[in-house]
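Hey, resending since the last one bounced:
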Amino acid sequence: DLQASRSFDVSNFTNGTYHVPHAIDFHGNSHFLAGFERNRICLYDINRSSPLWVSQSTKKECGLSVHRAIVSCFDKQANAFLPEHSTRVCGTYRNELHMIDIRTSKNQFLHKLKSGRGIIQILKSENGHYLYTLKRNSNLIDILDMRQPSKKLNTLKLPFNMGAQKFKASLTAANGLTIGTDYGSVINWPRDLVEFGGNDRTFVENSLTQKLGADTFGWESDLPYGNSRINLIEESPVEPGLFLVSYSPDKFAEPSTSI
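The structure tokens again:
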């Protein structure tokens, strides 16, 4: 049986309740970030139960709407072996992006996306300049330039709507951005495009015809459910081209009937 080797404090000392973490991600080898409701973010040392610092936006700083946002995810670097940056980016279910300074806990608002209903994943290019944001109920992946985050740089268009069920993509230095679809295929935007923020608009429009899966790996013939949803896909950081894939039927789909 699995047993917890360490426990970490998420209690609210003011009212005796507990803060529920909605996002957790390691930062380096001995620290991790946890995101909660009301834009609350904590940095923990794995050897201490109490957080090293707590960052939380106030009504005075950003207004009531942002103040109540749930931190849904933290950014993920394309190259897992690069040194950790002193800043991290987090997303919320209100489509907001914030940058956190790990050294000081300062929280800086970056951008509010217009489409979709909540950011579910943030992928950062290998050079650290571009953010690729995935959202619920959207068929678009928005691209932001970290050097000018106040405006959207470009958009990658998906051939399906992600809906309320979460899809997770993979962005690596070797093969660019890869994501599954809701009909059993895998699509890809190559490294050269992803590394420069999708600035080649002609290539972005045509890139959806370049699929990984049926043509390369034979996903359709291997899946027992036919047109299944490819929920999660992750490329090995040490063996490029080796993918782990999670797939399932669409739980919101109408059941098929036959006579």
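The longest strand covers residues 71-77.

Sorry for the duplicate.
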